[in-house]
Amino acid sequence: MNQRKEIELLMFDVLPYMANMEFIKELLESVNSLEELEQKVRELLEKETDITKKTDLKILLEKIEERKNK
Fold it and tell me: How many domains does the chain have?
């Protein structure tokens, strides 16, 4: 499966759990691979101060790790 399709599937999987859907959607659209997304999410988690966004990022990271372990 190509990387873009993988990201789209991840988006459908995580968006129902997100409080800030637009933020996450933009993040998902800005990357080309799950590895790139994972790296970006980890970087954002270190910098982010908004608790809601931070929670969304943690959920997203968890879903990325689930997909990688399949």
Answer: 1
